[in-house]
Amino acid sequence: MHNEEKKCCSFLEKNEQYQKLQAKLDGCEHYQKFRVYRDKILALSNDSLEKTIAIALALCLVCAVLVSMAAVALKPLQIDNKAFDMKKNILDVAGLLKADTDISAAFAEQIEAKLVDLETGNYVDTMDVEAYDQRKAAKDPALSIEIPAKQDIASIKRKAKIAKVYLVKDGSAIKSIILPVHGYGLWSTMYGFLALNADGQTVQSINFYDQAETPGLGGEVVNPLWRALWKDKKVYSDSGEVALALIKGNVDPTKADAAYKVDGLAGASLTSAGVTNLIKYWMSNEGFAPYLAKVRTGG
Ligand SMILES: Cc1cc2nc3c(=O)[nH]c(=O)nc-3n(C[C@H](O)[C@H](O)[C@H](O)COP(=O)(O)O)c2cc1C
Known about the structure:
- The chain contains eight helices and nine strands.
- The chain is α+β, with helices and mostly antiparallel strands.
- The protein folds into two domains: 3-73, no CATH class; 90-296, no CATH class.
- The strands form three sheets. Strands 1-4-5-6-7 form a five-stranded antiparallel sheet. It has a two-stranded antiparallel ribbon with strand order 2-3.
- Helix 3 (49-93) packs across helix 4.
- Residues 186-187, 213-214, 217-218, 267-271 line the site of flavin mononucleotide (FMN).
């Protein structure tokens, strides 16, 4: 069949479909009512209030339908992008992200996600780790617990009973452990990852991937230069207390506690206090301390 013939057939088919649809609409009582109303409106003067309102409403309706269709159609893409971005953040805090890294492949090869029962510190192998969303779980009364105001130093109100951690593997050995942390700064809840060495004590890196502090002030939590200050800091003092904290000003390297302190963010004491509090909370017995104790003893 020639191209022209093909085009003609397709036109006839479409025309036939259109006619069928038209016949259906003609038989519909509501459509007939709509047509009568539409003709009445269109016959009105362009300056009439009724016509202006009717046209504006019709336009709103069409736009609303288009926006809703776009939102529904783009949802799967949004979910994929979010998952991809999370993998990128995890690789970044693990120190495995380079300009040419194939994110999905590097994540699949080197990172293992695990669920941890925060109370016992044990791994949970009975749930689907891929499908588990700790942020969603923290809002579900069945999967989370309310934090008493006195204990809620990170101002998060509720916490999921089960946390999703990531292990960076070198063969079968664990190279580092990536822990999800979050807490309130000045304007926002800051969500991030803290990467610790396999000793469960030495910081490898920190990465806040979702926060809304002021750029240039509290927003400096994402500054690579500030993030670099965290490397090799220690979390727990000899007595087992959480000693890692931000201080006002710069850390004096000659001081005995320098290994536990990080420079505070200039002009952002409140965000800095928020970071200290979230570290203190998530590294305590309310957070990952039971799990890290088991990691340290190889349990
Ligand atoms: C517009 C504006 C935005 C600010 N954003 C932040 C912020 O994101 N984090 C923060 O800790 N302080 C922020 N501050 C400053 C706080 O209000 C407060 O002055 C500051 O935390 C004190 O820090 P300093 O003791 O280091 O000076 C902001 C102030 C203004 C006026």
